[in-house]
Amino acid sequence: MASLLILGGGTAGTMAANLLRKHLPSEWTITVVDRDDDHHYQPGYLFVPFWMKPSRVSRNRWAQLSGGIEHIQAAVSRVVPDERRVNLADGRSLDYDWLIIASGSVPRHDLIPGLSDGPLWGTKIHDFYTLDGARRLAEALPDFEEGKILVHLAELPIKCPVAPLEFAFLLEDHFRKRGNRHKVDITYVTPLDGAFTKPVSAKAFGDLLEDRSIRLAADFTVSHVDNDTSRLVSYDGRELPFDLLVTIPPHTGAQFITDSGLGNDMGFVPVDKLTLRAKADDRIFVLGDASDIPTSKAGSVAHFATELFVDNFLAAIKGEPLPNEFDGHANCFLESGRGQALLLDFNYDTEPLPGEFPAPVVGPMKLLKRTRLNHLGKLAFEQIYWHMLLPGKRLPVPLKMSMAGKRQPDTAQKEK
């Protein structure tokens, strides 16, 4: 009998367990370890401050696993690859033949001095990257009538890197609907030199910020938060006053990865970006946000990579060459307010481009263009997530990025 141990019961860990249960012989044991029993639909955090009920975001973690999969509720203390063993925080240890690390990434408010350790935390300073944070922000927004709001991205990588922009656009729409937009000054603060990481999308989102009268404070590398003066301070000495600061802090990998000596300086596990196999040990694969692959830490990446990983895992346990290569494919909706959204589709080598998705000409989704259909697609994904993606049902979208329907920047520019 062989054993597969999966550390983390989030999107990637749950998908991997459910998909592999369909393919591995019954004598294989599959065990998922996680420290709690709440599975969160994390894209829902964005909507909680505005309209989504918090109870809609969370479901029982273990109920998402198929039959024939064991689970253990415990925190992980350390991985010991040489002994193929995982130590748990409660003193137990688990042996494995193969290990999948799918422990995600962790928002670290403690890495910015003055952010969560001062008197403004929870009053003037909020976040929406945890369910508790989103819930507290939902309670604070109705009382905000006028003043300066900073929507702040501390650094990359973070989960869902488009979410800070989405929040800024939804915030602007929120005050527009309330009729006091003219009393609220919104600034999007980023360490990047533009609104986003790549030229085409950076221009598109920068134009949209300008269209919505949202200021852009670029190249802002935060040093600390001054709680006495309610100011966000950068390393180059700039100071931005705020009446409300909504921040997305730096992210790291899980602590047990660092404690096990498996992580880089941010606690993410170095892997072969094509196969997701850990560079430190051939018996370990890393799925979802826990790895150091150079693409978006997004649910779509976990989805595409995990489906391609299954064939690789089945080959690996037979000692055969791995048949699939992951290209870094990411596919993200970006809410722009006014009941519209944009769609981004990209990979390791190709930046988000305009065009149609998934089929050329007919779409029906539009890339890098605000449409009602994109917005409805984002809302519909909640049900797709629970009922199709987590159980391991195949979705009608390509696992690898296709150039079909996309237009290169020169072509797109000529059409303007």
UniProtKB/TrEMBL annotation:
Pfam families: Pyr_redox_2. Residues 4-122 form the FAD/NAD(P)-binding domain. InterPro entries: FAD/NAD-bd_sf (IPR036188), FAD/NAD-binding_dom (IPR023753), SQRD (IPR052541). Transmembrane segments: none annotated. GO terms for molecular function: oxidoreductase activity. Gene3D superfamilies: FAD/NAD(P)-binding domain. It comes from the Bacteria. PANTHER family: FAD-DEPENDENT PYRIDINE NUCLEOTIDE-DISULPHIDE OXIDOREDUCTASE, PTHR43755. This is Oxidoreductase. It comes from Tessaracoccus flavus.
